[in-house]
Design goal:
282 residues; alpha/beta; Nitrilase/N-carbamoyl-D-aminoacid amidohydrolase; six-stranded mixed sheet; 6 helices; globular
Length: 282
């Protein structure tokens, strides 16, 4: 990993109004480029809105398609990488909750949510892969919302070489203080246990489809310390932070961590895979 500057965005995403949402994404990407950001992460389903339980609005979109073409143009113009969430319908008709990696050359990869909670079953299908993506300055993985409840997912990504894990969310139902307190019980642990940077962002505000999101966006260093967070729970906001290679290297040299233990990666939705896991010594 090289020193890298990332940005995490919490934004209002209006269901069924992708044009408006893309305009907002474009504005943030432009601002990030001016500030020499390398990677920007937007929330879960930020492109066309989160509306689990409704299979008609928003309308799933293909990849590539008109919406991703517009976002690819934004990435090319800004010259940076950003991650944005789309309700995807693949060629066979299956719908996925997908986070797309856009870069200066267009679509550079996709991640389909692997852990689908009960409230979302029937709206989209679970994906079956945990890819790690290469940026010129760092390797990173993605977990969408409920994925982050499963510690084995972060361990699997770290074992594949991820140095940063992005956690885009569409999570409502709490006050900002309640959500921040809950996330502090496990998000820093994903960073500390695996010696990686972990960055989480969330939708915010009324999505015009009966849901209100309460923001909360922050970044943890490899020791699990929160190094940046948003200040508001009711408005769009972007935080920018420099992640250093030195902090990552120092965490990997700590004597209480080691590699070589194998565990099963299990979930209610996926099969069993063996992955190398780094754990703290007992």
């Amino acid at each position: 990993m090289q020193d890298i500057r990332i940005a995490m965005v919490q934004m209002q995403s209006v269901v069924g109004n992708a044009e408006r949402n893309i305009d907002v994404i474009g504005q943030f990407v432009t601002e990030a480029a001016v500030q020499n950001v390398d990677i920007v992460c937007f929330p879960d389903l930020g492109i066309n809105g989160y509306n689990a339980g409704d299979t008609s609005s928003p309308e799933p979109e293909p990849i590539p398609g008109p919406l991703t073409d517009r976002l690819s143009e934004i990435a090319a113009s800004a010259g940076i990488t950003f991650l944005a969430g789309l309700l995807e319908r693949d060629e066979s008709g299956i719908v996925y909750n997908t986070q797309i990696v856009f870069g200066p050359s267009g679509i550079e990869g996709v991640y389909r949510k692997t852990h689908v909670p009960t409230a979302e079953i029937g709206t989209w299908c679970h994906g079956g892969e945990l890819p790690v993506f290469d940026h010129p300055k760092a390797r990173f993985g993605i977990e969408i919302c409920y994925d982050s409840h499963f510690p084995e997912v972060s361990t699997a990504l770290a074992s594949k070489g991820a140095e940063i894990i992005f956690l885009p969310h569409a999570s409502g139902g709490e006050t900002p203080d309640e959500k921040y307190a809950r996330w502090l019980r496990y998000v820093p642990a994903r960073a500390y246990d695996n010696g990686v940077y972990v960055a989480i962002c969330n939708q915010v505000g009324d999505n015009w489809a009966g849901r209100t999101f309460t923001g909360v966006t922050f970044i943890c260093d490899p020791r699990g310390e929160v190094i940046a967070r948003t200040q508001h729970g009711d408005q769009d906001e972007m935080i920018i932070v420099d992640l250093t290679a030195a902090s990552l290297a120092e965490s990997l040299q700590e004597p209480e961590t080691f590699l070589g233990i194998f565990v099963d990666l299990k979930s209610t939705n996926r099969g069993v895979c063996n992955h190398e896991r780094r754990i703290t010594s007992l």
